[in-house]
Amino acid sequence: MSGPSTYNPSTGIEKWLDDRLPIIRLGYDSFVDFPTPRNLNYWWTFGGILAVFLMIQIVSGIVLAMHYVAHEDYAFESVQRITRDVPFGWLIQSMHANGASFFFVAVYLHMFRGLYYGSYKAPREVLWILGVVIYLLMMATGFMGYVLPWGQMSYWGAMVITNLIGALPFIGDALREWLWGGFSVGQSTLNRFFSLHYLLPFVIAAVVGLHIWALHVPGNGNPVGLETRKGKDNKKDTLPFHPYYTVKDGFAIIVYLMVFAVFVFFLPTVLGHADNYIEADPLVTPAHIVPEWYYLPFYAILRAITFDIGPIDAKLGGVLAMFGAIGILFVLPWLDTSKVRSMRYRPLTRWFFIFFVVAALGLGWCGAVNPDDFVLGITGFKFLYLGQFLTFYYFAYFIIVLPVMGIIEKPKERPASIEAAVLGSDKA
Amino acid sequence: MTEENGAPGADGQEPSRRDFIYIAAGGAAAVGGGLVAWPFIDQMNPAADTLALGSIRVDVSVVAVGSEVTVMWRGGPVFIRHRTEEEIAEAQSVELDALPDEEARNDNLPTGTPGTDANRVLRPEFLIVKGNCTHLGCVPLGLGANTGDYDGWYCPCHGSHYDTSARIRRGPAPENLPVPDYFFETETTVKIGLSPEEASNSGWAVS
Amino acid sequence: MKMTRIFAAAIAALGFAGTAAAFEGEQYPPKEHHWHHDGPFGTYDRQSVQRGYQIYQEVCASCHSMDLMRFRNLAQRGGPFEEEAFPNPNDNPVVMQIAGSYTRVWDQDEVNDDGDPIERAGLPSDAFPAPFANVQMARASNGGAYPPDLSLIVKARTGGENYLYSLLTGYYDEPEDSHLAPGMYYNPYFAGGAIAMAPPLAEGIIEYADGTEASVEQMAEDVTTFLSWAGDPHMETRKQMGVMVLLYLLIFAILVYLAYRQVWANVKH
User: Fold this and answer.
1) Which residue of A30, A89, B27, B172 is most buried, as measured by CB atoms within 10 A?
2) Could you say which residues from 40 to 59 on chain B have a Cβ atom under 8 Å away from some Cβ of chain C?
3) Whether the Cβ atoms of residue A36 and residue A219 lie closer than 8 Å to each other
4) Active-site residue B82, yes or no?
């Protein structure tokens, strides 16, 4: 961790343990005395919120698994039994289903924060990459979890997404059958998805451990994007994590939980889809298949590629674009050529970033509707075209805007230090 | 520089109010944590559909004199034996001090009730007991297989002998086979899972 | 075949909803109806749920199953026949009487000593009896259309209660340019406008036990309320607990915010 440990075992037992397993020292250095930039704003509280939601999902999930039956004939009924007959089952099921959405809201805000404040730049590339790994694992976990209630959307969502694998050349069909464990989505698929859905959150927890480790080597980034100074000036730039950020994170967590509670108790089904209250039927496809909202932007990118690109046909092209949209995040630290971290001091790129957020939301909108519908009823202006334009911008932001702007943009003057930023007039 | 020592409110603000806020916030967290835990604990209790099967109705008119049936109740066997006059007489003639377990073991009656045959049945002709040996839970054999040395039941696992009132007479089992809560709803239907008292309180017809 | 056509029409309707092109089978948005159980404090109107159960039992149940419902549900907390004297819904005399009025084979695994399934009177723990043994039989008896299970119907339809209410009160004379297949009925609230279900409700088809006048609107409202309860039987507990949880979180948030102000009182940031 950064800086020497300041932990002083105060009792004999602590001293004894510290010589053998310095776990209290680890906790103390990581979450009590850890020097944290004093200028973190509320965008920095989503890490703590995410930790809380990972716990909520794991605990409620373990409990649901005590009642769930992973069988195509009983899965739907067993989930309904949980909400009807199991004591507090309705509450726990609602927490788990809505918890997934709130987990994703928090992770998206956490990621946009990282993009805006340049949290992916040296020396935090590994921290960022681990974050993208967590995000990928979350996507996989969420996808398989959505299959488990075995409603119509569960089934057909699984069908559509697993069929994407079939687009891969040569190995596609074999890989898809391997994934299904049969010739279609069925009992084997459901059973293995249940197994993996139970496993992956623990993998996520482990990668979160690495993520925090990688965070605590360079320490937190911050809104002005300057490193905390070393030596005696370090104290002027930082505050101990506890109590300053424990209480700030705590407050943010409670506020976020309030919004969560509104959904759990008063709008428990509003984020779901009506079709998922119909049991899976392999013979009837719902009129309009949409994935869970948190996949919509990627679904829109998938559908935006309606043309062949050289030897790559449209279907494979869509799949590659969709995975590429996440894959590009892995190399982002090397695409952004600017030495300036925070968008506060990047007057032009900042606007490109804001439009990137708009594009991401717009892609979500495109993913939710029929691509042949007209945007705002404007005849001829299909959602498909909007989706294609936004998909182009999504990739252009990473491949063109960030590399080029880093070279041509003249950043604004930055304060000399975090202390100066806090004390000085620069209160952006 | 007072801000650097990490002691909140080191500016001499009235400590009692400051402490109150910390204690109240910490207390609220503790209370919340406790309340949140409850649903996660309670969910493991029997669910409503399981509880709904907590009482069953059995038509005993199909059980002929001198025969017995085994029915499933709460996931385990219940013996219903339609006893013959001889079996009843045999059960009634046993002196209390001949019994290893002198308790009635009848859920309908308070503990400490002596284990006479009369205290083990509602009607002498029908003996209704839970069918797991009180030793380690095996299901004893009965009519048609092996009634043991006392004409009741014999547990093959460790050799416990029960008499015609399903009381333990010899072997390792410590207690008589317990009598569940039940009552006669009509002359021929018995409801297992509710005592006559509970039943009449709940508006059931008790015959 | 009919289903395929409806299905195609449904896709078409969804695909072009919101465009100016009006054509046969345009789907109307559901009517806005006020429900007693709307809003964060709304509770089910018990009388309405009871009447709705009567409608289900006397009208709907001849075609529509409710596989997830048990008779005991009618007497559980928040249910239409809940009574304080019987905290255990399985002991509720009204429900016992309702369940007991059905005699049939309830469970193919419940057999006598010859191995034949036993026919017996219903118990509170038994499921609502289904009108058809399987989907094929249901289709065969309904001109190929499958009457969906109603246990979750309010949750399983976009628009929920309003959609159901609109559908039940939405049978109109068919427009001139429509070409309804035989056995189909015009209902613009249904995707595609052609529905295989004959108008189920008509003035005075039943007599309410509580003397309420059985108009089509009244019956539609009651049966929708009943189905809404059936799909979400813990709604009242859920909302009550939600209010308590939010109150608690609000107080907790205020306390932690005050603590936050204290901690950061003298720190520039």
Assistant:
1) A89
2) 48-49, 51-55, 57
3) yes
4) no
Determine whether the interchain pair C252/B28 forms a contact, defined as Cβ–Cβ distance below 8 Å: yes
Give CA–CA dist C51/C210, Å, rounded. Answer: 8
**pLDDT by residue (tens digit) across B40-82?**
999 999 898 888 877 777 889 889 999 999 998 888 899 999 9
How far off is chain C from A271, nearest CA to CA, in Å? 12
- Does any CB of chain A come closer than 8 Å to the CB of residue B49? yes
Write down the pTM of the prediction: 0.88
C166 in a structural domain? yes
Task: Measure the CA–CA gap between B41 and A59, rounded to whole angstroms.
Answer: 11
Contact call for A84 and C234, based on CB within 8 A: yes
Q: How far apart are the first and last CA of chain A?
A: 30
pLDDT digits (tens, 9 = 90+) for A4-37: 788 888 899 999 999 999 999 999 988 999 999 9
The whole-angstrom distance between B118's CA and the closest CA on chain C is: 28
Q: Are A368 and A292 in contact (CB under 8 A)?
A: no
3-state secondary structure of A249: helix
The answer to ipTM > 0.85 is yes
- CA atoms of C141 and C145, how far apart (whole Å): 9
- At a CB cut-off of 8 Å and minimum separation 6, what does C81 contact? C50, C74, C75, C92, C94, C95, C98
Instruction: Write out chain A residues lying below 8 Å of B45, CB-based.
Output: 87
* Positions of E strands within A279-339: none
Residue ranges covered by each domain of chain A:
28-427
Decide which of 1.20.810.10, 2.40.30.170, 1.10.10.60, 3.60.40.10 is the CATH code for A28-427: 1.20.810.10
Select from C93, C125, C256 the Cβ nearest to the Cβ of B25.
C256
Residue C39 DSSP one-character state: T
The amino acid occupying position C80 is P
Chain A residue with the nearest C-alpha to that of C264: A244
